[in-house]
Amino acid sequence: MTTPFGDFRTPNITPDRETGIGGWSLANFTQAMTKGLRPDGSHYYPAFPYTSYNRMSNQAIADLKAYLDTVPPTHNKIPSHNLQFPLNIRRGLSVWKSLYFDPKPWTNNEEKSAKWNRGAYIVNGPGHCVECHTPRTLMGGLDTKQHLKGLAKGPAGEKIPDISADPKSGVGSWSEGDLIFLLKLGLTPDGDAVSGSMAEVVKDSTSHYSIQDFKAVITYLKGSDTTK
To answer: Which conformational region is residue 133 in: left (phi greater than 0), alpha (psi within -120 to 50 degrees), or beta?
Structure first.
């Protein structure tokens, strides 16, 4: 993944014991997902979105690990990231985490409905939509003041659209059907189809949502929750 900070290599997460995560315990996996730490205690770069995955429950993480354990193991040693000094010093990530990583587990907003909370959890947690669709600061942290507002040049140089509730620049004026077509089929209201990374997201992720999860995500994105 090419970013302004350098090139990050996608790790092998098959259960191969030498080049993948086959030797990891559930505790190792949970630590990576919720704390951004490798089994040896060193820091992961936030190109691995543990900043969103840490909102997942321990049971959800255990379920994910159980699934990954069933994937056929593949022996594939991945090269190191290509990062310039001082970004290649992992110890510096402790400072980054102190600024941008909130390790607290997910809690529902009691002023919102169960549907809204489910949507917020998906978008900001396991779905990690926030990681691509929210602009970042110069140090690579999420700019929370521009939540889901998109950016002109994201990873690999792609334009990332605004999916906030803004009725003009975002999806606030889209109907529920418009958003279901987008998440299920990758089709936009003007008849176009998404491409690039978003096409992969639709194929491998959002198209598999349940109808309840579609509606929850839509409620959250449109800011349409009326339950107080």
So the answer is: alpha
